[in-house]
Design brief:
mainly alpha; Arc Repressor Mutant, subunit A; 8 helices
Length: 148
C-alpha cells in the first residue's frame, strides 16, 4: 500500500515540492536512476555518498508512494526489485541539471569523472538539448529494459 501524503488545501508550490524532494538522499537516488542504477544494492554500494540502508528503504518507499519511481521484480530472482523512474520522475531531470550547474558555477570542489563528463557536455550543448536528450535516452532505456 502506498503512503498518501497530505499537503492541505493551500500551499506554496516550492514547499510542497520540498516536502517530497527536499532532502539529499531523495535527489541522489533520482540522480542515480538517471545514470543507470536500479537495484537496492547499487544505490547502497555504488554511490560514493554512502546512504544508510534504513534511509534508502525509507526514500524508496517515499518516492514510490509519490509515483516518482516504481519497480518490478526481477524475472530471474523475484526477491530483487528493479526500480525505474516514472514519467513524473523523468520530469525532474531539469532540477537535477540545474543543481549540477549551480554547484559547478558556485562551489569549489574536485570533479568526479561523471561531473567532468557533465561539465564537458555543457560546453558543447545547450541546456535544453542536454535535458531533452537525457530524458529521451532514459525513456528509451526504460522501454528496452522494462517494456514501457
Amino acid at each position: 500500500m502506498r503512503e498518501k501524503i497530505e499537503y492541505g488545501k493551500k500551499g506554496c508550490a516550492c514547499a510542497v515540492s520540498l516536502n517530497i524532494l527536499g532532502d539529499r538522499w531523495t535527489l541522489i537516488i533520482i540522480r542515480d536512476l538517471f545514470v543507470g542504477k536500479n537495484k537496492f544494492s547499487q544505490f547502497l554500494n555504488e554511490s560514493s555518498e554512502g546512504i544508510a540502508s534504513n534511509t534508502l528503504v525509507d526514500r524508496l518507499k517515499k518516492l514510490t508512494a509519490n509515483d516518482i519511481i516504481n519497480f518490478r521484480r526481477k524475472e530471474s530472482d523475484k526477491k530483487i526489485k528493479e526500480y525505474y523512474l516514472t514519467d513524473k520522475g523523468i520530469d525532474l531531470y531539469p532540477l537535477i541539471y540545474e543543481l549540477k550547474k549551480w554547484s559547478i558555477k558556485h562551489v569549489d570542489f574536485e570533479f568526479r569523472p561523471i561531473t567532468e563528463e557533465f561539465f564537458q557536455l555543457t560546453e558543447k550543448l545547450s541546456p535544453s538539448q542536454i535535458i531533452h536528450d537525457t530524458q529521451t535516452n532514459y525513456r528509451k532505456i526504460r522501454l528496452e529494459q522494462f517494456g514501457f
